[in-house]
Amino acid sequence: MAGSKVFTRRRDGRVEVRMNEHGRSVVRSAFANVLAAERDPDHEWHVSLSGPIDPSLDQDNPVSMLARQTETSTNAELASLTVDEQFLNDAEAWVWLTTLQVALRSTAQTNGLHNDEQLAAADEEMLSYVRTLQSLLFDLAACF
Amino acid sequence: MDRLRSLLSIEAAVWDTRRMASTQPLRRTTTEGDVQTEDAVETKKPWNVIVWNDPVTPMTVVVVILRKIFGYSNNKCTQLMLAVHHEGRALVWSGHRERAESYCVKLQVAGLQSTIEQDT
């Protein structure tokens, strides 16, 4: 994946995805994990997807919680369905960005990476995974 | 002389009435009005949407998400992103509670750590 850009905005408005099979498998796994975490309360990422909206309350507004759950699931579903596409429209590129970002933050939270020092002290494999997601996000964000 | 005394007493009476009239609205017989005013101010306090810093989110992603959700200029989004990065948090929107909650959900769905709080 290194070298040229993975995501490029074309003149027709679509986002081109130039990713090898290893890259696709990383992205596919991230999307699948977000989807699974939203549906399964026992998934290790589930807690990071249900952070407080108003921390001054014991429980957040159920309507807002449902809206968050539905929207996150819908985004992850669309991202999963388009994971093998070579070209993404604007809506698809947006759900790729948000779902990858959710995966990145969930990974960090689940592994106790809450500040720069903890991130620097993370093991090589974890750091490599985080850097890969960051690189993809950096590239994709440049298309917006 | 009698006429002068009479004129002076009328003048004094008029002045006294005016003084009473001018002091009348300042009299306080109850604090009820003050309490109602305090309540009214309380309910108008805006709700703030806060975005929190985290060590992994790329800066450009924060800018893109803020621009997409709030429609702010690139310059404003960059300033807010820098505030998040340097101060640990930034107030990105302020207003009615329902809208604040809705924006907070959108930010969380986009993967940013966000909460709402009432203005102090």
Short description:
Chain A has helices spanning 21-39, 46-49, 62-81, 90-110, 116-120, 124-141, and strands at residues 7-9, 15-17, 87-88. Chain A is mainly α.
Q: Would you mind describing this structure in some detail?
A:
Chain A is mainly α and 144 residues long. Chain A has one domain (7-141). Chain A contains 6 helices and 3 strands, in the order ββαααβααα. Chain A has helices spanning 21-39, 46-49, 62-81, 90-110, 116-120, 124-141; strands at residues 7-9, 15-17, 87-88. Chain A has a 3-stranded antiparallel sheet. In chain A, helix 1 (21-39) packs across helix 4 (90-110). The relative contact order of chain A is 0.17. The mean pLDDT of chain A is 94. Chain B has 5 helices and 3 strands. In chain B, helix 3 crosses helix 4. Chain B has 2 domains: 2-41; 44-118, Ribosomal protein L7/L12, C-terminal domain/Adaptor protein ClpS (Ribosomal Protein L30, Chain: A, 2-Layer Sandwich). Chain B has helices at residues 2-23, 32-43, 59-70, 74-87, 97-109; strands at residues 47-52, 89-95, 114-118. Chain B has a 3-stranded antiparallel sheet with strand order 2-1-3. Helix content of chain B is 61%, strand content 15%. By secondary structure, chain B is α+β, with helices and mostly antiparallel strands. Chain B is elongated, with a radius of gyration of 29 Å. Residues 17-27 of chain B have low confidence and may be disordered. Chain B starts with a helix and ends with a strand. Chains A and B meet through helix 3, helix 4, helix 5 and helix 6 of A and helix 3, helix 5 and strand 3 of B.
